Amino acid sequence: MRIIRNIKVSKMSMSHEVPNRERALPVNGRSAIRGIPGRTGPFQTNRLLFALFLLATAAVPGTLGEITRQALQDAYIGVSVFVAATLYLFYGAEKVFGVDIGRIFKNAKYAQVPLASCLGAMPGCGGAVVVVAAFSSGNVSMGAVVATLTATMGDAAFLLLAKRPDAALVLLPVAFATGIISGYIVDLIDKRKYQTGGETYEVFRIGARRLRDYLYGLVFLPGLAFGIMALAQYEFTGITAEIETAIALTGIAVGIFVWAASPLKALTNTKDNAMTRVTEETSFITAWVILAFLLFEYLNSFAGLDLEAMFKTVGILLPLMAILVGFIPGCGPQILVTTFYINGLIPFSALIGNSIANDGDALFPAIALNPKAALLATIYSAIPAFFVAYGFYFFAPQFL
Is position 325 within any domain? Predict the structure, then answer.
């Protein structure tokens, strides 16, 4: 079940696979933090502790439990079901049409930059990861990498689309256009192609569909129906409201334990089936969404912090701070920034600066395959992030 596929990069194609080899997960291994076991049974210990914390706080009577349950319900009905729906469409189409992105890029030549920017602008990190892999195999230029990393908002795009589609319909096209312009400029000043010399970035291949994948899909279907009705501003009462809550909390419970037991860090193997990839990636995104939602609600309700007033005191430095947060690899911090925007704590200028600067999960394989190229691409994408963010800050301060 837990088979690793080494994705080996070469000049001939985007990826090659070495023969399968079994690799046992470190069940009794210890993490680097104070001797805590890395895994407890089938679960990653730190993730298991978070899952148990959620169950405990949701079960507590009174205000704490009520706030926690509502945040979990909002996360599932308002975000997770739409993430899963998007990924089902994306990965399903990928399997049906059998697209070879590496070959397309190799033949695209001068169209590489807009194609890379388009893939980056898609919600999630999958498109950007594909471009990074194609770059490492020598199929695309540095400008294409900068274009995709500039255009990508990562998994935070799912949250923005679900909660503020009006803002997403502005931000994503602006990031896409910025990615194209930045990519062509970089290709003019940096014509080199960095090769990895056949280095590998290991991604677990899970293999056959699992019971948890079917269970997640089974809960997803009614959850999506409730999510669509919620978008239409339909208010549930009585038994219907109770059913909605039960489905949401069941979906959260299944997803959070899928995430806790996952052998993956963030990315899924492209050879896995669509249902497994959707289950794993949606669960990963949901965990970060829950963390962001709960952090906001707890600080607001129990710590007595006026986050809006605190951010206002930062003033002109706020977009710059959001850009610096964008340098952190992964999508978690970016989801938190998006949550702050959705709740009216930061302006659109800070959000778009963070969006353009952040590279999402695509930075992990970039660092593994070619650290030098990853650092350069991050620096290159920070420049347009600064200009676009402060353009909105000074010339459209009240925009959206």
Answer: yes
